[in-house]
Automatic annotation (TrEMBL), chains A, B, C, D:
GO biological process, one term: one-carbon metabolic process
Record-given protein name: Formyltetrahydrofolate deformylase 1
Domain of life where this protein originates: Eukaryota
Keywords of this entry: Hydrolase, One-carbon metabolism
A molecular function (GO) term: formyltetrahydrofolate deformylase activity
InterPro entries in the record: ACT-like_dom_sf, ACT_dom, Formyl-FH4-Hydrolase_C, Formyl_transf_N, Formyl_transf_N_sf, PurU, PurU_ACT
Keyword Nucleotidyltransferase: no
Record Pfam families: Formyl_trans_N
Organism: Carex littledalei
Domain called ACT: residue spans: 28-108
Keyword set includes Hydrolase: yes
């Protein structure tokens, strides 16, 4: 998971200084620790003691497992509870409960998540992300697009990127040369990566070096149809439902923890082309939903292969 | 909402006495009060102080409204936190926060909810409820069926009721004579009522005298198609989606707070008969889902016409 | 596919004799042949020449394949087009076009499909089928239930079977002894078999000897989770959607042509028990939908692994 | 419904002349007439006699009504069956059966449908249509956008329109001045109109003068929530499902024949803003699906208030 940096002043530095006027900000806190009695009490007591008003809580403790997960939303006055104190308070609670995770985020103060988007030849997911971003529905900063395919300058994507000042890096790949070092260099300052139908497999070495989350969209309903041409695989298998899966990338291909899945019906009337079109529609929705949930701190890893999605 | 009586010994009195062996029970608490800072803290602190371990919390505070809603699930040892102390602790918290609602329920100790089911001529909802009940999927005691239609003794329903010792009360109705007094007499010891396609309108006087919740299934997607023959209305309106709605009954016909809604697609190929068949299938699922949520204390009234369904 | 026998008088012999009164019956015809120009013309011309009035047609020719599929519904007067002439007319057309399939069925004249249902320990699919049958929503005759598990006489299922005079055959199985010969003996006069969570694998020898269709419900979304414990497999895989699949049984386990699939959402809140409960609900709906489509002659094999479902 | 003009040469004039090389085109024919015996036979015989190969047929005759609807797709060789002969053949059949409708369309030869899109302040439907059009997923020519709101030149929409040479006509409206004459002047050469969240009501006079189909998207699940602010109405009504409806425009507000409807779940967690966002997502999908079906000749009026959608 990604921690929000509190050291730099956010885009709303003005607000931070107008603390003389009591103004409430919205905070999100996620917590994951070994389960014991009293976690909710301590967390909520901390928030209350700082004048914070909780307006949403989700707590989940799996059956027979000893892990505690929570996600809280609260309103607070930064005049009374400054951002850095907020940070240290929750870190303290994290240490108290030996937490795997104690992350707080204040969307209106903290820098937006910075992402890079990797794509190959297929356009649809990248375009959909760019449109949503431009409409304000994707709360991230897009640092660059990286692709192993070129795109002509007068295409919709390239013109869009040019107008919005988003760099496009063409890094051709070949067997044995995934350009991973160069990719790392381009993305090291991002908070997470989005593979928007990027068809190259990132190595374990890359994932370890990058060290942060990578979200992928797979155009099939995992664990069915891993690997290539899932639409073709589904078509040949005679399924009546096709789907898309967004998941965290791990070393194992198409096997990382699933974040979201969506399906649509197909019938004998669907040919491979309409399988693909329906799949593309699902991929767009499924990927953007996963990114949105992730940015809202709703997604937490759960055991080896699962996620809690609050 | 219904409070679970803690004064009578439940079916599991044996367990209550085996408190020498530490055994954890599952408790559910719902709370509704004017929103202030510190409610979650106080509630969770109370549970923790009694050794209770929270494993699920849902908190909801609507935007700009001043109401706080929560639903918590926790494990507790009745040796350490006896049922009556549990009850009084939460009542105390209710008074502290001037709560509209502070209800705790321990499914394994408290008596099951006792319901009466009212039906008219249509069988499908009653039959579905009886089957689910018999399979253990409907955690209620059915005190009786009340109907304004007779049913022949050798029908599936009547044989089922006979075998399980559930009385069937035939109370014919006529304009001006809804038999409400007699119904009240039969249902006064129930926790809530289920109208399973009961086609008579219960008066405001009845609802007030009964004083507890009444759940109805309407065979249309409210607020469309209120009143009679919603399938016919939908068929004539040329809709492409039909639905069912389960809701609390109020004086206003088909206008009480909605608990659950379900839809299914229809097309030109559907005639009135298939509209009705699809509707019946939805009604069964929608009604049983509403009852299940209600019994699990997931349903809370929200403003005049809505519900929170955790 | 199953051909309807026209030699025996159906349950509606009375109607067959009242042909002096012009009365229209509903006929269904399915046709599958190598695609050429003029098939629809010939089929519809045949129907029209006999005074039949087509009220529904579905024609499907896959892209680049050379197979023609059609399903027609028409109204006809048996006084003008007797049942046996109907049969021979469509057989003639079948020969004309070298058809793999030319099947006509008149639900109101022909005997109902006769099925046997095989089950193991799990009850829910059998019970659901029996209820639907009893309510008239499953247009088959159930010749018997065959199970490799015993059921106590006072259980709901056994009482139901007793009341309706449906035999229950307990045939215990062991590795190396699938009792297939005995099963064959019991089912040889059925039109098709339904495996309602029957957990034994029928051998290729059995399928060949039986020679008719066998419909199975698999409690997973094929091709994911073949074989045993698909709910457990799905639970461990961290999927967000679970499903059920009804399909024709072939020698290869869980790989025969898929007829219908249904899904439902799951989340971290679902434990294995609720995965199973949601799955059971899907299995019931998916299996009965497949049987209904099959009985209405809507299901046709398509290439090696698929179906056309009109 | 719109008839495709065969008099003008389509974009594929080149293909039309290369008839010396046998090449098959794809034709779509829809037919609506009083139901009698033999319609399918005559239609299919006509196609077969011209060497046309039918690969898809949908026939629908409503219960107890006397209307016959069909939609056929067929492959034909224009060398053998020229476009103008195709047209006259089907017109002849139309006269033979006294048809309300006998329309044939050859997408690869005929001009694309020409539409104008009307919008008000809300952007999302227009933008989605433009994107789909630009990606080749909306098989129409967009002659212009007409709006009663201005848009700044550097907005995404305006830049897009400029780049693609699509005129934007700002026609401000006021009570008593709907600018309908000017709109008529701008749209008279279109095949149909799309109201993409155009908030003015077109008068009966306009509809009559325009004389062709007008498709509207209503941001509510009709017949619920007609008129203004359906999201607000739905929010206040406490529904658990919201939807969008695309329909033909008639004189009666939001009451014309429904073409398509889509729903999405909402809960207490949704505020008015998320109701609107979910609604916008549905509106985009619902409107484009309706336009796609319409362009493929799948939508036929059925009785006063319904549609057949093949």
């Amino acid at each position: 998971m990604v921690g929000a940096s509190s050291s730099s002043l956010g885009r709303n530095a003005v607000r931070a200084f107008s603390s003389s006027i009591s103004q409430f900000f919205h905070g999100i806190h996620v917590f994951q620790c070994p389960d014991v009695v009293g976690v909710v009490a301590k967390l909520s007591e901390c928030i209350a003691s700082r004048g914070g008003n909780i307006n949403c809580v989700d707590v989940f403790v799996p059956e027979n497992k000893k892990t505690f997960y929570s996600r809280s939303e609260f309103a607070f006055d930064p005049a009374r509870w400054p951002r850095d104190v907020l940070e240290s308070d929750f870190q303290k609670l994290g240490r108290l409960f030996n937490a795997e995770r104690s992350i707080v985020r204040v969307p209106d103060l903290d820098p937006r998540y910075k992402i890079a988007v990797l794509a190959s030849k297929q356009d649809h997911c990248v375009v959909d992300l760019l449109h949503r971003w431009q409409e304000g529905r994707l709360p991230v900063d897009i640092s660059c697009i990286i692709s192993n395919h070129t795109r002509a300058p007068n295409t919709h994507v390239m013109r869009f990127l040019e107008r919005h000042g988003i760099p496009y890096h063409y890094l051709s790949t070949a067997p044995g040369n995934k350009r991973e070092q160069e990719i790392l260099g381009l993305v090291e300052d991002t908070n997470f990566l989005v593979l928007a139908r990027y068809m190259q497999i990132l190595s374990g070495g890359f994932l370890q070096a990058y060290g942060k989350d990578v979200i992928n969209i797979h155009h099939g309903l995992l664990p069915s149809f891993k690997g290539g041409s899932p639409s073709r695989q589904a078509f040949d298998a005679g399924v009546k439902l096709i789907g898309a899966t967004s998941h965290f990338v791990t070393e194992e291909l198409d096997a990382g923890p699933i974040i979201e899945q969506m399906v649509e019906r197909v019938s004998h009337k669907d040919n491979l082309r309409s399988f693909v079109m329906k799949s593309e529609n699902l991929e767009k929705q499924c990927l953007s939903q996963a990114i949105k949930s992730y940015c809202e701190l709703r997604v937490l890893p759960y055991e080896a292969r699962k996620t809690v999605v609050f």
